[in-house]
């Protein structure tokens, strides 16, 4: 339906020339909203969800290029179509009819509103934002249990994360694509109703869900790479097994850094991590054994079994876990090792890869069962999440409501049983502990599926499709420190309490100075938006960025009544001063502009609207009674497009209004022929010595140009007064210019 709505919207837009440019911009905005949904759906198969938001903010190191390229291609197509629509609105405006303008304009507005409120894309994005918001974790805090159990007997554990290998694959149009796993499930203990709710649905989430029994949520405004601790407040199973003398080892064929995984495992009880680089460095595999997502499963599983034998002959108990990769979307990777071992009639590449993985995992499990070490070993198989968009999405969509994750426990002597009690991946380890005769198996928000207690988080989801309070509690487990905690800056590392951070670092704290949110980029863009009436806004950065006279690392705390300044060294905070002076952030109407190099968040925000910023030099103007920001012109000087100063002067208009100048990414790239035009614009020779990725933000009038220069490769944050256009650099905001 969305395609029909967009075509209808485009047709009505060009049916009449009246307001054609405004209408075309509205169509492009609608198209880009749809594009965001479309590309997200290519990734997830379920449109925009928390997996999309997580990976937008997390490290993508280790992502398969083969997986990314189709998304980049799709994005390029949408951008080209958008450009074509805008171009056509200017090119053919005079050739379009003007009759029946009222009728067509009403029809256009009606079509636009219908798209906004009825399209699948907008409804999905709205719902995803609802799920992304966090509620009051205090309401469910009593439901959260720490790991606290005793067992009379210690078992060894082999825990298998089968990438995307969901239970649903055993019956699609009457075909079982995972017969080996199905046969094992029939012989041991299987849980048939493992559902997927928010905070689940991607690999990193599946690992946190199972090991810590909590949904995974983003640290607000944060990337795991900028923090030293990954979910520092979470109580996870491997930590306790390690304390009980277990050797813990995790093996994956992908890069361990992907999505912050290396930090999670190293900080939550895992002694050893073997990833793609480890396997290459130790000559376990070579480049022929690697595809886009990592080491092929046949080579990986051979290494896992060797580790199983080695650990089984040691005196210590162990937890050995591994993650497969060859069933990763979009089409998986079929391996020649499976030739002759799967149904030859399977042609769909995703189903073929799934059947191959089934054979390899099934053979591995049988090998352990037939070994001398099975007596004291419990094998667990789960799918880390339901399959995202892939070559078999059409078939999977036909059974969407019946899709479930795999959860199988294989233990010698266990009675073959199928348990239909509804659960989630949060219930996996509590159930394993129960099988292991733990006295108190439940922890986190998870419950043993062998007991009568019902999962309260699942009940909440079934009742209201909302688990925001649980997400709020999980968010608190990122353990933000307090501004009252000890600060330290030593060897280039900033520590607050027990947490280590990169900088610049800013965010909000409550009246007791407990940090509520943390951000790392685009201070000017975000500052006014995140500052609520009762919040303290804090900011920490190199003093050279914020002060005219100080060196080292500077910190600031701003309220509606005061400004506090301090410096940080290895001993803590020193030179602390509290000024009875209010920052312009609280006392003036400001426009915040953040510009910077590639891969850094940039944009312009007047606390009413926020806009992204094109590369090169941009010119904005405040228009109308509300003084809304409008982008008037962009000159991509990095691509050797000079600034047309005469055209810029014409932008000022008869009212002699002031233009706002803001660069982004890089003013200059090689060659440098555009320097004279920028010098003419600035009415100075500043461009002569301007380095690549050195930013400019300022104002331009018929008679004067005022500007602030940043430092090369360092983001620049500037605030501009909406009334008098005064430039406020950061030292002004923090009252530290003298």
From TrEMBL:
SUPFAM superfamilies noted in UniProt: Alkaline phosphatase-like
Pfam families in alphabetical order: Sulfatase
Compartment list: Cell membrane
Membrane topology: Multi-pass membrane protein
Class of this enzyme: transferase
E.C. designation(s): 2.7.8.20
Keyword tags: Cell membrane, Membrane, Transferase, Transmembrane, Transmembrane helix
Domain Sulfatase N-terminal residues, every copy: 156-435
Classification via InterPro entries: Alkaline_phosphatase_core_sf, OpgB/LTA_synthase_biosynth, Sulfatase_N
One MF annotation (Gene Ontology) recorded for this entry: phosphatidylglycerol-membrane-oligosaccharide glycerophosphotransferase activity
Keyword Metal-binding recorded: no
Transmembrane segments: 6-22, 29-48, 68-90, 102-121
Matches recorded under NCBIfam families: PRK12363.1
Protein name: Phosphoglycerol transferase I
Species, as recorded: Enterobacter vonholyi
Taxonomy of the source species: Bacteria, Pseudomonadati, Pseudomonadota, Gammaproteobacteria, Enterobacterales
């Amino acid at each position: 339906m969305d395609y029909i709505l967009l075509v209808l919207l485009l047709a009505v837009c060009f049916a009449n020339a009246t307001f054609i440019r405004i209408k075309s911009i509205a169509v492009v905005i609608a198209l880009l909203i749809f594009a965001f949904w479309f590309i997200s759906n290519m990734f997830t198969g379920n449109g925009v969800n928390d997996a999309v938001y997580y990976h937008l903010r997390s490290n993508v190191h280790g992502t398969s290029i083969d997986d990314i390229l189709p998304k980049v291609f799709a994005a390029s197509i949408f951008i080209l179509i958008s450009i074509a629509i805008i171009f056509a609105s200017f090119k053919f405006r005079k050739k379009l009819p003007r009759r029946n303008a009222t009728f067509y304009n009403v029809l256009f507005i009606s079509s636009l509103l219908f798209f906004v409120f009825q399209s699948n894309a907008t409804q999905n994005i709205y719902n995803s934002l609802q799920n992304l918001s966090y509620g009051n974790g205090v309401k469910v805090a009593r439901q959260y249990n720490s790991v606290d159990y005793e067992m009379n007997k210690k078992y060894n554990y082999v825990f298998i994360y089968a990438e995307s290998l969901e239970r649903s694959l055993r019956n699609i149009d009457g075909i079982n694509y995972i017969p080996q796993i199905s046969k094992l499930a029939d012989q041991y203990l299987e849980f048939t109703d493992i559902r997927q709710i928010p905070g689940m649905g991607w690999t990193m989430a599946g690992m946190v869900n199972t090991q810590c029994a909590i949904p995974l949520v983003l640290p607000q405004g944060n990337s795991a790479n900028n923090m030293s601790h990954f979910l520092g407040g979470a109580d996870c199973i491997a930590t306790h097994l390690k304390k009980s003398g277990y050797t813990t080892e995790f093996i994956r064929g992908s890069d361990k850094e992907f999505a912050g995984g290396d930090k999670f495992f190293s900080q939550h009880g895992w002694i050893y991590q073997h990833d793609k680089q480890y396997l290459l460095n130790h000559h376990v595999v070579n480049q022929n054994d690697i595809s886009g997502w990592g080491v092929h499963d046949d080579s990986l599983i051979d290494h896992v079994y060797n580790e199983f034998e080695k650990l089984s002959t040691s005196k210590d108990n162990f937890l050995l876990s591994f993650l497969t990769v060859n069933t990763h979307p979009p089409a998986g990777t079929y391996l020649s090792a499976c030739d002759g071992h799967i149904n030859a009639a399977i042609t769909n590449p995703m189903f073929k890869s799934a059947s191959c993985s089934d054979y390899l995992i099934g053979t591995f499990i049988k090998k352990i069962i037939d070994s001398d070490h099975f007596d004291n070993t419990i094998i667990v198989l789960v799918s880390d999440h339901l399959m995202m968009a892939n070559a078999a999405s059409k078939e999977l969509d036909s059974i969407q409501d019946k899709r479930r994750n795999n959860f199988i426990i294989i233990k010698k002597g266990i009675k073959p049983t199928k348990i239909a009690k509804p659960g989630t991946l949060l219930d996996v380890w509590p159930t394993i502990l129960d099988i292991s005769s733990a006295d108190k198996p439940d922890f986190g928000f998870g419950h043993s599926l062998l007991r009568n207690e019902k999962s309260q988080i699942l009940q909440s989801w079934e009742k209201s499709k909302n688990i925001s309070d649980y997400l709020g509690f999980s968010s608190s487990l990122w353990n933000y420190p307090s501004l009252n905690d000890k600060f330290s800056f030593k060897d280039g590392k900033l520590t607050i309490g027990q947490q280590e951070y990169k900088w610049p670092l800013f965010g909000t704290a409550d009246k007791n100075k407990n940090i509520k949110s943390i951000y790392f980029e685009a201070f000017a863009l975000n500052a006014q938006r995140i500052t609520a009436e009762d919040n303290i806004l804090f900011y920490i950065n190199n003093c050279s960025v914020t002060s005219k006279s100080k060196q080292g690392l500077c910190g600031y705390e701003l309220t509606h009544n005061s400004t506090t300044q301090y410096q940080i060294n290895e001993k803590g905070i020193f030179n602390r001063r509290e000024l009875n002076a209010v920052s312009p952030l609280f006392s003036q109407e400001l426009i915040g502009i953040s510009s910077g190099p590639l891969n850094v968040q940039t944009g312009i925000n007047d606390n009413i609207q926020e806009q992204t910023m094109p590369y090169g030099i941009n010119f904005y103007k405040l228009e109308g009674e509300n003084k809304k920001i409008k982008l008037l012109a962009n000159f991509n000087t990095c691509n050797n497009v000079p600034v047309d100063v005469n055209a810029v002067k014409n932008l000022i208009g008869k009212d002699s209004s002031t233009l706002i100048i803001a660069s982004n990414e890089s003013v200059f790239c090689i060659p440098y022929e555009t320097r004279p035009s920028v010098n003419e614009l600035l009415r100075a020779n500043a461009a002569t010595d301007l380095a690549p990725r050195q930013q400019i933000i300022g104002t331009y009038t018929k008679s004067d140009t005022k500007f602030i220069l940043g430092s090369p490769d360092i983001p620049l944050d500037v605030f501009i007064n909406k009334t008098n256009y005064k430039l406020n650099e950061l030292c002004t905001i923090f009252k530290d210019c003298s």
